[in-house]
Amino acid sequence: MTRAGIVTVVGKPNAGKSTFLNRVVGQKLSIVSPKPQSTRDRIVGIVSDAHSQIVLFDTPGLLEPRYALQRAMRRAALEALHDADVIVYLADATEGPAPSLVVAARLESPPAPDVVTVYNKSDRIDHEREAELAATTPGARFISALEGRGVDDLLRDLRSRLPESPFLYDPEDVSTQTLRFFATELVRECALEQLEEEVPYSLACEIEEFRETGSPVYIRAVLYVERESQKRILIGNRGTRVREIGKCARGKIESLVGGAVYLDLWVKVLPNWRKNSRALQRFGYRLPEENAP
Ligand code: GDP
Ligand code: MG
What we know:
The chain folds into two domains: about 5-160, Rossmann fold (3-Layer(aba) Sandwich), CATH 3.40.50.300; about 180-280, K homology (KH) domain (GMP Synthetase, Chain A, domain 3). The chain is of the alpha/beta class. The chain is built from ten helices and nine strands. The chain starts with a strand and ends in an 11-residue tail after the last helix. Helix 7 (about 180-195) packs antiparallel against helix 9 (about 240-255). The strands form two sheets. Strands 2-3-1-4-5-6 form a six-stranded mixed β-sheet, with helices on both faces. The protein has a three-stranded mixed β-sheet with strand order 7-8-9. The structure holds guanosine-5'-diphosphate and magnesium ion. Guanosine-5'-diphosphate binds near residues 13, 18, 36, 123 and 146.
C-alpha cells in the first residue's frame, strides 16, 4: 500500500520556505531571495519514492500582515491550509520561540490537519538555544534547509502522517508540465533582484510560448506590471535593465532545462491586475470558488 497526500508549507517571509522546497524537491523551483515576500504563488513540488508521494504546496500571504494582494488571496491561503493532509509550519530558529500557527496566521480555530512546527536555520543556533526552543514548542523539529540537516528525518515523519492512497501524480508528467511554471518563477526572481521597493508586488510573469522541440529551446516571456512608470523602471535606460533580467533568467532556465535557451522577454502594462480576479488566475493564483470569473 502506498501513501500520498498534500503537505502545505507555511511560514513568515524569510523563514526559508523556498530553500526548503528546493532542497526536498532536489531541483530549483521556487524563488529564493534575501528579500522577503517574493514567493506569492502556490508552488507545487513533488517528492516521490517507491512507497509514498508528498505533494508540496506553498501558501503565499498567510503569515504576511502587510501583504499587498487582495483579501481573496488570504482566503485562498486559508483554503490551502484546509486542503492539506499535513501542515509544515516553518519558523526561523534564530528568531526565538515561534507563536502557534493559530496566533501567527490569525486563525479562528486550530486547523484540522496535523501541524508540524519546524525550526529552520538550526545551523545558526547553539545546542542551548535549541533545547530552549524544544522545551517551549513540544514536538518541534529542527532542520537546516540550507545544509540539509534534519530534512530526511522530517520527510520520514511527514510520510508517516500521509493517508494511505495511490499516488496523486505521475512524477514524470509533473516535471515536464511544470517547467513552464518554473520558468516564470525564474524570470520573476531575476527581475526582483533588480528592482526597488514598490514594483515587486505589481510584478507578474507569463510564458506565452515554450517550444521545447528545437535547440535552443524558445521561450517568450512577458513581465506584467500595473503602471507605465513601473514599465519604465523595468526596462531601464535604453533597455539595460530588461536585458540584464533576460540574461540572468536565461542562465537560470538553461540550468533548469539542461540546454541552450533563447529567451524573448517583454514588458507590458496590465493596469491594476492585482484587483482583477481573471488576471490573478491567469498568473496562477488560485482563488476561492466564489471569486472565479
Ligand atoms: P522564504 O521567504 O520563506 O521563501 O525564504 P527563503 O527560502 O527565500 O530564504 C530566506 C533567506 O534565509 C535566504 O537568504 C536563505 O539563504 C536563508 N536560509 C534559508 N534556510 C536557511 C538555513 O537553513 N540556514 C541558514 N543559515 N539560512 C537559511
Ligand atoms: Mg520564498
